[in-house]
Amino acid sequence: MDQNELTISILVPCYNEEKTIRKCVLSWLNQTRPADEVIVVNDCSTDGTLKVLKEFKDRIKIVKLKRNTGNKSFVQEKGLKHIKTDIFIATDADTMMDEGFVEKVHSAFQDPNVSAFAGYVKSLRHNWLTACREIDYIIAQNLHKAAQNNINFLLVIPGCAGAFRTEVFKKYIAFDHDTLTEDLDFTFKINKNNLKIAYDQKAVVYTQDPDHLRSYINQMRRWYSGNWQNILKHINIVKKPIRAMEVSLIYMEGLVFYFLMFLIPILNIKSFFYLVAYCATLGIGFGTYAAIKRRRLDLLLYSPAYIFVSYINAYLFLEQFVKEVILRKRNSIWFHPERRAIT
User: Fold this and answer.
1) Which of 116, 160, 121, 128 is nearest to 312 (CA)?
2) Pick from 103, 98, 75: nearest CA to 87
3) For the segment 215-259, what is each residue's pLDDT rounded down to a tens digit?
4) Does some domain include residue 225?
5) 318 vs 133, 144, 211, 225, 315, CA distance in Å?
6) Where are the strands (E) in 93-241, listed by range?
7) Average pLDDT for residues 262-291, to the nearest whole number?
8) Same domain membership, residue 122 and residue 271
9) How far apart are CA 101 and CA 178, in angstroms?
């Protein structure tokens, strides 16, 4: 097949997204290289989501489910049955695409060896908590993910900014519905089959992150549960030394450092103050780097709060390790965060 003739779909699971869906649909439609089809799967929304979607009924395909599944991967699986294109982009109903996103996906898949694609996620600006999440995104994508890309072992394709060859996805990946982070499950399967993932930091999407602590904690709890579930499921992926090193740096080193964050104050209060000073320096350093990269002063101003958020993350990381790995109390609750209007 001539790679220039590749056809592309955008697949979006959707539930109670009336506050965000209009601007997101417009961003999916107004691309420099238009998608050949946009498929939105409505998981029996109870608000005005379907009414908004019907405004675009001549430009998008709306798939209405008979009953609510309450799970993103089930909704995506229903939508995949309607995809006939060579490539499909997986994104979320609270995520806007930069106008060149589809074009960059099309360009990446000109290489016939590329089986999947990872874009770059930015958090929509709102308050101090979303600023801390943006700092996290910059660290994860500009540092960790860039390094992973250099060793051909990208650890996760973002669930709101990924793309796949449809045939490859159906053959090697598919949906198991047995973890809470389907994007990590997809990526592990791709790596296990030694398939190529392209990563482009210029393929940008803008997503809405939790803006209050309860919602943030619920989301992080799901993410960490899903991470440990996937580690247990795909433990044989670390057979290659370079992959074992990368996974251990993230998970094993994380366990040790996060455990020490809570142990040191008990053992020695002076050492605890040194730890806080170290974390503060690190947080401000990351905030400065993020502020320069994004040209956003608020990322520097809110960077001290990054220490507080880091302690929340540490606790939840350890909590879910104990539950998922030690006690084997599997978390199967899919958390749907509250939305706010995109301005």
Assistant:
1) 128
2) 103
3) 999 999 999 999 999 999 998 876 677 777 778 778 888 899 899
4) no
5) 19, 21, 23, 10, 5
6) 95-97, 114-123, 162-165, 196-207
7) 89
8) no
9) 30
